[in-house]
Amino acid sequence: MGERLLVPRMEEHAVSIFARMSTLAMQTGAINLGQGFPDTDGPLIMREAAMQAIAEGRGNQYPPPNGLPVLRQAIAEHQRRFYGLEVDPDLGVVVATGASEALQATLLALIDAGDEVVMFEPWFDVYAAGVSLAGGRRIGVPLSGPDLRPDLAALQARVTPSTRAILLNSPHNPSGVVFTREELQVIAEIAINNDCLVIADEAYEHLWFAGHPHIPIATLPGMFERTVTIGSGGKSFSFTGWKVGWASGPADLIRAVRVVRQHLSYVSGGPFQYAMAVGLGMDDTYFSEFRAGLQAQRDILVAGLADIGMRVIEPQGTYFVTTDVTPLGFPDGMTFCEALPEKAGVVAIPHQVFCDDPSVGAPYVRWAFCKQPAVLAQAIDRLQVMRPDGHVGPDGPDGH
Ligand SMILES: *Cc1c(COP(=O)(O)O)cnc(C)c1O
Questions:
Q1: How confident is the model over 366-391, as pLDDT tens digits?
Q2: With contact defined as beta carbons under 8 Å apart, do 247 and 94 qualify?
Q3: Atom 13 of ligand 1 has which residue's CA nearest to it?
Q4: Least CB-packed of 28, 164, 258, 395 within 10 Å?
Q5: Is ligand 1 within 6 A of the CB of residue 203?
Q6: Confidence of residue 1 (pLDDT cuts 50, 70, 90)
Q7: Would you tell me how many other CB atoms lie within 10 Å of the CB of residue 185?
Q8: Under a CB-based contact definition with an 8 Å cutoff, are residues 101 and 261 in contact?
Q9: Whose CA is nearest to atom 5 of ligand 1?
Q10: Distance CA 351, CA 166 (A)
Q11: Does the C-beta of 236 come closer than 6 Å to ligand 1?
């Protein structure tokens, strides 16, 4: 057929690295530390709430397009309780089919053909696809230096009056970096000085570790009115299969997002919305225990990867750890990740695929630690074969 099928601007997004690596994991029987989903389900009371809603016939038919009132109320209350933000539950919140749809609806609503969107790279792949869908132009700003901090001088240089939006993600996937108040302050000043919007992807807002609290940029002076903040029930409560997320912010921005979102999935799963409202209302113990559990998993994987000889950038948030794999004798992360399933029976993801500037992510690989401690220990055992000296570590191999 000579005719065009896929629109050209989406061709570069044709292959998802996650699908490719998960297929490789299946073929080789590898432990999949590539895709970021927990191997333990979230709170029982939320599962019961979803089952009860189904049994009682609540939410089994189309819920309201902008989200169930009880969930919009819970989201507004959550923003007040954790961050002191005053969000209008009727006009300032929209529920979506995951943070992914909230992001895409936001980009499609706010970005017109030719508009520039500045984002830190490595970026989450959904951002690049979303900007292309909208016909916008993505402009990368690196996370740089040995600790992968946001390059604020580069941001200052690349944000101009023709920038429509800065797309921010903290805690940051894939690096595990949590932006500091000082960094956010500079980003806020740049946004205000250039009068651009901010899209804040806060999918990992509850996944930060001791000493690195998450600070929503919308809490900084002058920022609420120009920021759409995005949350993910899948990430906050370990129900990534339920696909409930949301956007919140000032009424004028959220109105724009609502207009587009109603024409995407129209509504998001009703019974799960009831369950998310229960989750958002859980007391602080849930959130602190969730973090503590993940921090323990982080510590297992960080220690194991460092022991093998990689340089580890200790994650401050998210459920990913980044390592520099060049000390193991590999030229870059992609080469390493392509060899890893066959050589060691483990799957990880290279940062390179999330960067336009190939020099930015080249040495780095992302590993997910949202897995049970026994799985992490087994992965570390398998990775012993990757030691640069070819010798097994102090703990010995497991015969793999
Ligand atoms: C997982 C993820 C999302 C998408 O969240 P869903 O609620 O599953 O759609 C958005 N942003 C980042 C950075 C993520 O890692």
A1: 999 999 999 999 999 999 999 987 65
A2: yes
A3: 173
A4: 395
A5: yes
A6: low
A7: 17
A8: yes
A9: 99
A10: 21
A11: no
